[in-house]
Design a protein that fits this description.
Distance between the termini: 59 Å
Mean pLDDT: 94
Structural class: alpha+beta
Helix content: 10-25%
Radius of gyration: 20 Å
Largest sheet: 10 strands, mixed
Strand order of the largest sheet: 5-4-3-1-2-7-6-8-9-10
Number of strands: 14
Length: 316
Amino acid sequence: MTESDAGQSRFFCSELSRRAGERVAGTASTGAVWLLLEYPHGWGRHAFQESALPAEVKQFFKDATARIRHSRILFVKTDRGRRDARMNLFVIRCRERSPFVVRLQVEKYFDLLRYDLAEIASGRDPQGGEVGAGPLYLVCTHGRRDKCCAKFGMPLYNTLRERAGECVWQSSHVGGDRFAGNLVCFPHGLFYAHATPESARRTVEAYNEGRILAEGFRGRACYSNQIQAAEAFVREEAGLSGVEDLHFLSSHAEGADAWRVRFEERAAARIHEAEVVRRASDFRAFITCHSADPRPVPQFHLEAHHVLPAPDANEV
């Protein structure tokens, strides 16, 4: 790419990522608890910080995310006509099995101050919120953050909104501008890269049926990046698609950029062991549309996949 091509108006980082064939396994944003606050106004580049939320409400969420381990806050909105003036807050607990969504509705943002979000996220006390298992779909449309999110996110959102209705929401920055259109399937927290209206329809259909579509799968939010990559590789090698087919057992570093990751496939009474490594790409990428210079990006590779018998439950 020439220097003139690098001008922000001359390229879309997502298009360059797809053209380079960038590997996406192991790139999902991590988080065990996601707080999705409905904010149906304009989003600045830094949506939460630049919002017009009252200072007390901002501090409430800052305190909550500091208190709740591995938690994140995003803004969400829809283009729906407002039949209900109340604002929504979704508290989502991502995990392998039995993840959940708690939906709170308030008339004023100040009303949120009465809730203990840590208690809700723990599953101990929903505090009057509506508890469900989803699904809930997020499409990043945060164009003020990166133009790719608007260019590729809005057509994706419009298509899914028509297909899946009120469980589809626009989202602020979910991470990975160059992977737009970015689609997230909650409550499991499954991230998908370079989603198109066509591939997203397949993704939603699969998730509604309890399956993970391999196409564009970045990983799940409750795992660290090397575990995300290992899961994607094992699923591809073993032909597994069920959302809960694998149970994470362990991850051991075998060097600075190598890991041995194990999963249990309970239905088949066997263990999958994946040896994964992380290497810099042989191509250079613009991380976002705002990047001044391209650089190599980390890519996960599968070195080996071993299938082992599961230990007998009666063995000590």
